[in-house]
Amino acid sequence: MSVLEGSVGVGDMILLEPLNEESLINNLEKRFQHKEIYTYIGNVVISVNPYQQLPIFGPEFIDKYKEYNFYELKPHIYALANEAYQSLRDHDRDQCIIITGESGSGKTEASKLVMSYVAAVCEKEEQVNSVKDQLLQSNPVLEAFGNAKTTRNNNSSRFGKYMDIEFDFKGSPLGGVITNYLLEKSRVVQHIKGERNFHIFYQLLAGADAQLLKALRLEQDGSCYSYLNREASRVDGMDDAANFRVVQNAMNIIGFSTEEVQQIFEVVAMVLKLGNVELRDDFQASGVAGSSIRDEKVVKEISDLMKLQPEVLERALCSRTMETKKEKVVTTLNKIQACYARDALAKNIYSRLFSWIVNRINENIQVSDSTKKKVMGVLDIYGFEILENNSFEQFVINYCNEKLQQVFIEMTLKEEQEEYMKEGIPWDKIEYFDNSIICKLIEHNQQGILAMLDEECLRPGMVNDSTFLAKLNQMFSKHQYYESRVTQNAQRQHDPSLGLSCFRIQHYAGKVMYNVDGFLDKNNDLLFRDLSQALWKSKHHLLQMLFPEGNPKQVSLKRPPTAGTQFKNSIATLMKNLYSKNPNYIRCIKPNEHQQRSLFSTELVGTQARYLGLIENIRVRRAGYAYRQVYSAFLERYRMLGRSTWPHWRGQAREGVEKLLEELNLGSGELAFGRTKIFIRSPKTLFYLEEKRRIRIHQLAVLIQKMYRGWRCRTNYQLMRKSQILISAWFRGNMQKKRYRKIKTSTLLIQAFVRGWKARKEYRKYFRSGAALHLSNFIYRRMVQKFLLGLRNNLPTKVTDHRWPPPPYKVFTLVNQELKTIFYHWKSKQFLDQLSPQKKEALKEKLCASELFKGKKASYPQSVPVPFRGDYVMLREKPKLQHLQTASDGPVLMVETVNKINRASGKMAPRILLLTKSHVILADPKGSKIKTVIGLERVAEVSVSSLQNGLFGLHFTEISSVGSKGDFLLVSEHVIELLTKLYRATLDKTKRQLPISVTEEFTVKFKEGNMQVKVIQSPKSQDKNKVSCKKKGRNHLEVYAQ
Ligand SMILES: Nc1ncnc2c1ncn2[C@@H]1O[C@H](COP(=O)(O)OP(=O)(O)O)[C@@H](O)[C@H]1O
Ligand SMILES: [Mg+2]
Predict the structure, then answer these.
(1) Which of 291, 317, 669, 1031 could link 335 by a cystine bridge, Cβ 3.0 to 4.6 Å?
(2) Comparing C-alpha atoms, which of 259, 260, 308 is closest to residue 535?
(3) Average pLDDT over residues 641-662
(4) Which of 92-101, 647-656, 901-910, 938-947 has the lowest mean pLDDT?
(5) Is the torsion defined by CA of 699, 705, 708, 711 positive or negative?
(6) Ligand 1 neighbour 157 (Cβ under 6 A)
(7) Among 57, 103, 109, 594, which is best to mutate for testing ligand 1, by the most ligand atoms less than 8 A from CB?
(8) Does ligand 1 lie within 6 Å of residue 158's CB atom?
(9) Quick one: which ligand is closest to 383's CA?
């Protein structure tokens, strides 16, 4: 996706309309919120620190950016690195990549991205790989010794770095040179709360094994060391121990020997332990204040590490030798001075160690042969800083940035001018702010601030920071970009914010107030010669190397150059270096102070945009023509806007563009035709073109869609038509085949019938008519015969045998039934005929009993097989009872002993009951005295229980009750026989059917009144006829029986 297309906001801010700070920041914010952290200003990349890992890095992105030109994809550091690398490889132009920005804005990360890009794109050969490894591995080592946690950045580089990567003619890396600037060495002895000392101290303590720690005489606990603020601070997400191993490994890859690594750690340990050397006031005999070591043990350990006599070190720390040409004077240092000397020593050892490491890395990665090399420089240097209290360090840092701005302006303008010249377009002078006047204010050899500072440092007599300020005030009283209280007073201005001991410089990026306190000291950066001489005497090889000036043979009384001068010189070298190369800029911006993702502080970004001079940058780039593009690319992009250039332009690209722009009728001042490029003055025109292109593309897309859809429908239709024809052909064929098959089968059927009919007709004469009837008759007869014979052989022998053979054929079912009925009638008649009249009478009785009691009374089934005896008392054999017989008229039908239930008490009394043809007689069983004689006509009804028992009630007619005692409740052992006989006798006598009701509840009428009888079933017992009664009140009687 190109910079112009589909981007959030404006991808290239040269095209920002309107151009002002607000729109610029809005554009950055909008892009930042959409995770578009990179934005261009021409070929400058603005990078806003995302504070989160974005999925836009890594090999596949590198591969993509490798394939495209700068503006063809979204803005990215890879695009810039690619452009620089290709220009280096293909056009043989040395490159430098200048990365600037505040601390924590992402400079170091950006430089690593550039390096990883370059490492990834260049050829992959064995030897090259080791060079690349060494180059890449220099990072962790430098970061361990030169980075620290600050409040703004957990991994803040506390030194400036410039790295030249050298390539051969093919573009393969050969090696490199690293230059370091101004390590913040004050951090070794002091850092504010919440920050840390350099990482290496913590890494060493956390990562070294016990053996190494012992050799270095170190405790693992960081809180033992006063240079670490006596706190074991850890940084979230940073594993010091693991990083220590990474550093050791990196040192190994770069080519440090084991002894060297050991010695480096020894020096680090010395520095750390120096912080624990405590000093105290010690007055000498002469009364002059002196100092001495409080704890000899620490000094002893350090001297052991330094391979030095403890006394030598002690003397060096506590005294100072003043040496002139003629004499040597030894003075003692008081406690404050001695502490100062100790800290100065620690700082010096550490910063010299750092420089030594850089040099050592350089020795390994440097290219030895002197053939011409292509160079790409990467500069990662601290950005412009405005702190609350700005001192010497900020002064030189800001000076450095001022110089870089100068490079930027000059190079950009130069480039612009060169381009115009190359393209043959007249160059109008561009108005811009030239900051060389500020650079001069600082760096002028005689009248610059740095020169004054040096002069003040060297001048004999009373010199201090305020004399320096006075000198500045005097020198620059009229300078436009310099202010202080004094110059203001002179101009009758009053600004309370400007401190007394301060001066203010109006840098290109804003006004900064510097406090002169400590300027002289920091510029002097003196290490007492006693210390360097003492350390040179050390037998520790590395330590001795760090202090060459301690060698008495090299003693010169000439002062070493001041820090300011050193820095100025190194910046001058750097500038020379940069000017000789093609610059590429990455300007880093920090979106917030809290290292937080997605948080964009407009105010903070505004300040940085001003520091970095982004608006200036855009103005310079836009001063002439905002947009330029080579003819062919321009034509390719916009040719659809012209009638003659669309769809094909056969001629030269330039002519095509001219024709196209003529047709579009743009203002003539807007355009300039260069040799290879078209120049467009204002972004508005470009946007106009873009908008037209967008609309046109839309139209073209619709056209293409239309054509495509038409084509698709047509081909689809044709395909369908073809298929339809094929399908219908098959279908018709199939249908005809089916029809043919049907006709064929029908024909065959008809033929078969006709043939059959013909054959039958032919053969009919040969058949005897009526044969079938004969046959069937014969068969039927045979069947009947078989049925009847089968029946004869299986007939039942007894009338009670109901097994009847089933018919052999279904047709005989009805006949069989009929035959069975006839057979049983005949068999029954035969059976009846051979019975005697008595037997017949007995059976009639049994039949009557069955009609009366079958299915009604429980004792009936048991009575069936038992023959009715009639006489149960042996009437004939008992003469006593004979007269009873005489009392009755006619034969006795039945006689037995029954129990009568007493109506009053419910008790039972035995009675002999006689039944004759006309009477029921009850007699006393002992005396055989007749108690009651009842004519059968008086018996109205009988009630009997349905259970096993023999209870029954004899109910008499109303009239007959006069004079009698009422109904009888009797219990008989042969109640079925008795009642059957009573029923038959009554029927014979009175031609009346005696009602016999089978029930468990009935009423008996007595003289005294009615009584309700209820039969209740008692549990089963041995004696089935046992009956017991219980009176319930006057009118109720409960009978318990089975
Ligand atoms: N491109 C990036 N992607 C993700 N995080 C980043 C990126 N650039 C910077 N950071 C984060 O910001 C922190 C500070 O970056 P750094 O390069 O050390 O800043 P500087 O060198 O400018 O002080 C890094 O430790 C990292 O967490
Ligand atoms: Mg950094």
Answers:
(1) 291
(2) 308
(3) 88
(4) 901-910
(5) negative
(6) yes
(7) 109
(8) no
(9) 1
The pair of three-digit structure tokens given for residue 618, joined into one six-digit string: 């855009």
Q: Residues with Cβ within 5 Å of ion ligand 2?
A: 107-108, 157
Residues 6+ apart with CB under 8 A from 137: 249, 250, 253, 254
C-alpha closest to that of 853 among 703, 1014, 716, 996: 996
Report the atom number in ligand 1 closest to the C-alpha of 51.
5
Digit-coded pLDDT (tens) for 106-116: 999 999 999 98
> In this predicted structure, what is the pLDDT of residue 5?
61
CA of 109 to the centre of ligand 1 (A): 5
Q: Which residues of 860-898 are buried (b: 16+ CB within 10 A; e: fewer)?
A: beebeeeebebebbebeeeeebeebbeebeeebbbbbeb
Quote the pLDDT of residue 82.
Answer: 93
Measured in whole angstroms, the distance separating CA 217 from the mean position of its chain's CA atoms is: 49
Q: Which two tokens stand for residue 869?
A: 């005896």
Q: What 8-state DSSP symbol labels residue 42?
A: T
For the chain, what percent of residues have pLDDT higher than 90?
Answer: 38
Of the bound ligands, which one is closest to the alpha carbon of residue 146?
A: 2
Instruction: Check if 591 has its Cβ closer than 6 Å to any atom of ligand 1.
Output: no
Q: How far is the CA of 145 from the centre of ligand 1 (A)?
A: 18
Q: Give residue-wise pLDDT tens across range 667-681.
A: 778 888 899 999 888
**CA of residue 381 to ligand 1 center, whole Å:** 14
Q: 106: Cβ below 6 Å to ligand 1?
A: yes
The answer to whether the beta carbons of residues 146 and 359 sit under 8 Å apart is no
9 is in an annotated binding site: no
SS3 per-residue string spanning 643-709: CCCCCCCCCCHHHHHHHHHHHHCCCHHHEEECCCEEEECCHHHHHHHHHHHHHHHHHHHHHHHHHHH
Check whether 303 is labelled as a binding-site residue.
no
Q: Name the burial class of residue 768, with classes exposed (0-12), middle (13-18) and buried (19+) by CB atoms within 10 angstroms of its CB.
A: exposed
Q: Is 999 one of the annotated binding-site residues?
A: no
| Across 324-352, average pLDDT | 88
1006 lines ligand 1 (CB under 6 A): no
Instruction: List all residues 6 or more positions away from 31 whose beta carbon is below 8 Å from its beta carbon.
Output: 7, 8, 9, 11, 37, 39, 48
Where does the pLDDT of residue 125 fall: very low under 50, low under 70, confident under 90, or very high at 90 and above?
low
Atom number, ligand 1, closest to the C-alpha of residue 154? 25
Query: Measured from the CB, is residue 103 less than 6 Å from ligand 1?
Result: yes
Q: Which residues of 145-164 are buried (b: 16+ CB within 10 A; e: fewer)?
A: bbbbbbeebbbbbbbbbbbb
In 92-232, the DSSP E strands lie at 95-101, 147-148, 156-157, 160-167, 173-181
Whether the CB of 101 sits within 6 Å of ligand 1: yes
**Cβ atoms of 409 and 620 closer than 8 Å:** yes
- Band (1; pLDDT cuts 50, 70, 90): very low
- Give the ligand at the shortest distance from the Cα of 107: 1
Q: Is it the case that residue 959 has pLDDT exceeding 60?
A: no
pLDDT top residue among 432 and 484: 484
Q: What is the dihedral of CA 349, 350, 352, 357, to 10 degrees?
A: 130
Provide the pLDDT confidence category of residue 385 given band limits of 50, 70 and 90: confident
Cα of 564 from ligand 2 centre, angstroms = 22
Strands 892-901 and 677-680: unpaired
pLDDT tens, residue by residue, 222-269: 899 999 988 867 888 899 999 999 999 999 999 999 999 999 999 999
Does residue 600 have its Cβ closer than 6 Å to ligand 1? no
Residue with tokens 């405790």: 219
Cα(108) to ligand 2 centroid in Å equals 4
Residue 132 pLDDT more than 60? yes
Helix (H, G, I), strand (E, B) or coil at 837: helix
Average model confidence (pLDDT) across the chain: 87
- Region 617-646: mean pLDDT is 84
- Judge if the beta carbon of residue 100 lies within 6 A of ligand 1: no
